[in-house]
Amino acid sequence: xxxxxxxxxxxxxxxxxxxxxxxxxxxxxxxxxxxxxxxxxxxxxxxxxxxxxxxxxxxxxxxxxxxxxxxxxxxxxxxxxxxxxxxxxxxxxxxxxxxxxxxxxxxxxxxxxxxxxxxxxxxxxxxxxxxxxxxxxxxxxxxxxxxxxxxxxxxxxxxxxxxxxxxxxxxxxxxxxxxxxxxxxxxxxxxxxxxxxxxxxxxxxxxxxxxxxxxxxxxxxxxxxxxxxxxxxxxxxxxxxxxxxxxxxxxxxxxxxxxxxxxxxxxxxxxxxxxxxxxxxxxxxxxxxxxxxxxxxxxxxxxxxxx
Length: 307
What we know:
The protein has helices spanning 2-30, 44-47, 94-102, 126-144, 161-170, 188-198, 203-218, 222-225, 227-230, 251-260, 279-294, and strands spanning 52-57, 63-69, 79-83, 106-110, 154-159, 178-182, 238-243, 265-269. The chain is α/β, with parallel strands linked by helices. The protein has an eight-stranded mixed beta sheet with strand order 1-2-4-3-5-6-7-8, sandwiched between helices.
């Protein structure tokens, strides 16, 4: 009788533990898709200046919503693809788009899948951000430059996860003219370690198992898609920008990226993960960098600047 009760208790404990693990994994998978936020009212002031909305397909036949801001002479202008970070949307980078557009760039700002007004997907991940950047480049090339005989320059700009996605995308292409990655992490494992520590969860064994589960869900090993691993394969000029007071992605992540790609350049600036304190100086510094690295490239237009 006693042994039978022990077996019943053991079975009940197993059911409770299995249910807890199942619920935990469901919650973890759900947390890989951020909540969508309403578009910023900041967008309204750009509508009368030529900003419009376009739709195009990405992987899994999902539709991306993007803001498109062409130049009057669209075909003869270079184009920039700007990707926001986790939980954001295209409006997060409108100020950057404004400066680029003012100096001659066509600008496309996509909402990544499960962000903004784009279609939702099962989950968001670094590879999916890279796929959505890839889809944006493809849209520009096939819809804007399809009838031109001259190759136009493509600039990638990404913030945080968008910056990591831009690195991954550029590492697999040879037609990106320049890459600016802002506040990017160097390795997803580091991101998850910080995420766990905030929740007072030990890395071993819980964190390690969580990371292996996420790798299985997204279909890639962290080591294979990490910016620190992919940046060495990027052939275009690379500028890394990082805030010295960034407490979300510490500055040492940018320094690790720089070590992995000595040909890159790093701007260490006063500021946090989301905001730099001296925007005017940063804009001038980036302008100088772009002019230096793009001025001698074939088919340069005279207005390639970033102010």
